[in-house]
């Protein structure tokens, strides 16, 4: 007799095409089949519980089914679910933008809303490009991006991205960018600054993930290096786009990583944690310098002719607004810093010294544990995560890097449990490393 779980996996694979997933292997990789959730735990179709230690792929901040967020959503449903932002406004979206304005590291910002991080990045690219053409400057058309960069999956975003993740097949569709090294290279900032100085006249913008390159495998850098690159770009009049889709909303210990770096980007992208992980909402944040370069006569070519159907969705805005208040009311950032210290100490003591571990990288609660498999193609990342899932903790790897991304409201007990389970999962795989 098949379990409820197996039955659902079968139905799932018959009709759903999962992202970043080889569908022929989907069922064999023990996917969990969520039916509901409570706080930091997911509950599957058989009633089994899993601690969500990846924050549902880095989006959930306070937890699932947070009563206050649920209520904000219900209250907004009694007003309106969605109306267009193209040429018209919606009260709750205005309130959200007003609440975000003093919090983002951009003075007097304007928010162009979108639904996904990749769309926010595309918007930023187009805005940076048109910013120059609107001023009659036609030769600032290139972007500088870093090795290891990840900015989403649309064509513009993968052009900025460093490749890998099976995206090389799209090389003929990508536009070229100027490529500096990534955070895995200690001298990355020197090279990036030199490239800015040599190519400023043709650069529309520099695009950077401040402090942490998430999808690269949680590669980290120091705030001063980010600051040096941003200072060089701004000194040469090159726009700076800070992609805080992953680092935004508290993950690194401050509301935005840009704060730690001491930078004020010209454009910024936010997404993932914006609605606490509830609904698809992202935004491109523009400084007045950028925004005002698009002002001109009605219907003129200076206008930004770009906008998505669900831009500024009212339900998402209502949840995002309440979420901002809760981050403050609950002193969430204090908890992030305390739990991050605890996690860092536990990883240093129990995980970093293991022979199966190459490196532990962390900023705030964004953590990558890079494994050291004794050979290629041993799928250690996947096997360690599968062993953790069997122990009731949901983890997901990036290659052989186990990503640990606990929710911002994690308790001390949960952090201990994640490290316990990770240690046990690594021991299990280390005891049976795979074919020689
Ligand atoms: C996830 C991510 C994106 C893309 O966001 P989506 O919502 O998945 O489109 C862009 N930039 C960074 C840094 C990200 O981590």
Bound molecules: pyridoxal-5'-phosphate
Sheet having the most strands? 7 strands, mixed
Structural class by helix and strand composition:
alpha/beta
DSSP strand count? 17
Provide the gyration radius in Å.
Answer: 22 Å
Task: Note down, in words, how this protein is organized.
This protein has 15 helices and 17 strands. With 436 residues, the protein is of the alpha/beta class. The protein has 2 domains: 132 residues, Aspartate Aminotransferase, domain 1; 262 residues, Type I PLP-dependent aspartate aminotransferase-like (Major domain) (Aspartate Aminotransferase, domain 2), CATH 3.40.640. The strands form 4 sheets. It has a 7-stranded mixed sheet, sandwiched between helices. Strands 1-2-3-15 form a 4-stranded mixed sheet. Helix 13 runs parallel beside helix 15 and helix 14 crosses helix 15. The mean pLDDT is 97. The site of pyridoxal-5'-phosphate has 15 residues, from helix 6.
Core attributes:
single chain; 436 residues; alpha/beta; Aspartate Aminotransferase, domain 1; Aspartate Aminotransferase, domain 2; 2 domains; seven-stranded mixed β-sheet; four-stranded mixed β-sheet; binds pyridoxal-5'-phosphate
């Amino acid at each position: 007799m098949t379990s409820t779980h197996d039955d659902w996996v079968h139905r799932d694979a018959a009709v759903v095409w999962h992202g970043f997933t080889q569908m022929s292997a989907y069922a064999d990789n023990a996917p969990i089949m969520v039916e509901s959730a409570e706080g930091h735990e997911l509950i599957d179709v058989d009633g089994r519980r899993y601690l969500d230690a990846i924050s549902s792929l880095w989006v959930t901040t306070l937890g699932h089914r947070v009563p206050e967020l649920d209520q904000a959503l219900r209250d907004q449903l009694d007003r309106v679910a969605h109306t267009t932002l193209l040429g018209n406004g919606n009260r709750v979206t205005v309130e959200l933008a007003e609440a975000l304005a003093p919090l983002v590291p951009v003075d007097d910002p304007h928010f162009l809303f979108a639904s996904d991080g990749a769309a926010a990045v595309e918007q930023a690219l187009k805005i940076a490009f048109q910013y120059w053409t609107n001023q009659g400057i036609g030769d600032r058309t290139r972007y500088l991006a870093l090795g290891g960069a990840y900015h989403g999956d649309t064509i513009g975003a993968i052009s900025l991205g460093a490749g890998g993740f099976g995206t090389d097949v799209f090389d003929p569709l990508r536009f070229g960018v100027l490529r500096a090294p990534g955070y895995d290279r200690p001298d990355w900032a020197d090279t990036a600054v030199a490239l800015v100085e040599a190519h400023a006249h043709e650069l529309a913008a520099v695009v950077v993930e401040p402090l942490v390159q998430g999808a690269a495998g949680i590669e980290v850098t120091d705030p001063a290096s980010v600051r040096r690159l941003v200072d060089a770009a701004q000194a040469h009049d090159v726009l700076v786009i800070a992609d805080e889709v992953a680092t935004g909303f508290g993950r690194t210990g401050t509301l935005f990583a840009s704060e730690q770096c001491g930078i004020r980007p010209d454009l910024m992208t936010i997404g993932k944690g914006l609605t606490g992980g509830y609904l698809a909402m992202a935004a491109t944040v523009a400084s007045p310098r950028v925004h005002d370069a698009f002002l001109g006569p009605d219907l003129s070519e200076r206008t930004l002719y770009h906008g998505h159907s669900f831009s500024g969705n009212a339900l998402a805005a209502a949840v995002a607004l309440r979420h901002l208040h809760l981050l403050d009311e609950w002193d969430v950032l204090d908890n992030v810093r305390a739990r991050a210290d605890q996690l860092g100490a536990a990883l240093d003591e129990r995980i970093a010294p293991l022979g199966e571990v190459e490196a532990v990288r962390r900023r705030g609660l964004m953590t990558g544990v890079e494994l050291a498999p004794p050979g290629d193609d041993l799928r250690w990342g996947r096997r360690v995560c599968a062993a953790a899932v069997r122990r009731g903790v949901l983890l997901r790897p990036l290659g052989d890097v186990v990503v640990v991304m606990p929710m911002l409201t994690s308790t001390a007990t949960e952090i201990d449990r994640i490290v316990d389970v990770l240690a046990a999962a690594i021991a299990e795989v280390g005891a049976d490393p795979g074919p020689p």
